[in-house]
Amino acid sequence: MFRLVTLNLNGIRSAANKGWIPWVEALAADCMGVQEIKAQAADVADRFEVVAGMKGHFHFAEKKGYSGVGLYTRKKPSAVITGIGNPEFDAEGRWVETRFDTARRKLSIISCYFPSGSSGEERQQAKFRFLALMAPTLLRLKAEREFILVGDVNIAHKEIDLKNWRSNQKNSGFLPEERAWMTHVLDELGLVDVFRALNPHPEQYTWWSNRGQAWAKNVGWRLDYHLATPGIAAKARREHIYLDQRFSDHAPLVIDYDFNL
């Protein structure tokens, strides 16, 4: 069984101060994608390079205290790729891919942090540019290999994926264009929203605003995903959103797959 977890940390040092590392040690994951680490290489060195026996591979943002992704793996990958080949977004540290290639299978595990557009129109346009780049990137990858992309996609796909969908139809994260992009990726590119394939139930959220009583009242959004090629998605067996502790404004999403690296 292959246990894969994703979590937007909202700062790796902040999450560590809230007990994230002991939780990971108890989880016995095989691989863990983290996003928004808000750290540089010097901050990670000697403290977060290895977590729970898993070695970290990182794509840091050039700007201090901003963005950045990591992927912790128990098994040594055959290759590690950072960035998507686009200067604007590669400067923001949004993609780290680990490849586990054998004679019988080519498999990538990716940690990705999609831009948020909630801070204003300029960032929303950046988000649209990222989405326009990401669709062909994923299509090319799918033609070459199986993969699971985990991360904070910053899109709630359908009405079931957020509490107050009616009042959020003009807000970033639930805009028609963003939802259409997700539909395109799933229905036309043929990727699978693994969590939703396993769990069709409402009120399954992974992010809650820090404003008001969002967490207490479970006024959440499902922004964190496992997006996988169909063959590997079919091996998913169990999903779990961990809610017993809070390490950031996101909750960890854990999925067990019936395969081994």
SS strand fraction = 25-35%
CATH level-two architecture: 4-Layer Sandwich
Unreliable stretches covering 5 or more consecutive residues: none
Radius of gyration: 17 Å
Number of strands: 15
Number of helices: 8
Structural class call reads: alpha+beta
**Strand order in the sheet with the most strands:** 3-4-5-2-1-15-14
Provide an overview of this structure.
- There is one protein chain.
- The protein has 261 residues and is of the alpha+beta class.
- The chain has one domain (2-257): Deoxyribonuclease I, Chain A, CATH 3.60.10.
- Helices cover 26% and strands 28% of the residues.
- It has helices at 12-17, 20-27, 41-44, 87-90, 121-144, 176-188, 194-198, 230-233, and strands at residues 2-8, 31-35, 50-51, 54-59, 69-73, 79-82, 95-101, 106-113, 146-152, 192-193, 207-208, 220-221, 224-228, 236-241, 253-257.
- The strands form three sheets. It has a seven-stranded mixed beta sheet with strand order 3-4-5-2-1-15-14.
- Helix 5 packs parallel to helix 6.
- The chain is globular and about 50 Å long.
- The model has no long low-confidence stretch (mean pLDDT 97).
Compact overview of the structure:
The chain is of the alpha+beta class and 261 residues long. The chain has one domain (2-257): Deoxyribonuclease I, Chain A (4-Layer Sandwich), CATH 3.60.10.
Write the layout of secondary structure elements.
Blueprint: E1 2-8, H1 12-17, H2 20-27, E2 31-35, H3 41-44, E3 50-51, E4 54-59, E5 69-73, E6 79-82, H4 87-90, E7 95-101, E8 106-113, H5 121-144, E9 146-152, H6 176-188, E10 192-193, H7 194-198, E11 207-208, E12 220-221, E13 224-228, H8 230-233, E14 236-241, E15 253-257
Parallel strand pairs: 1-2, 8-9
Antiparallel strand pairs: 1-15, 2-5, 3-4, 4-5, 6-7, 7-8, 9-13, 10-13, 11-12, 14-15
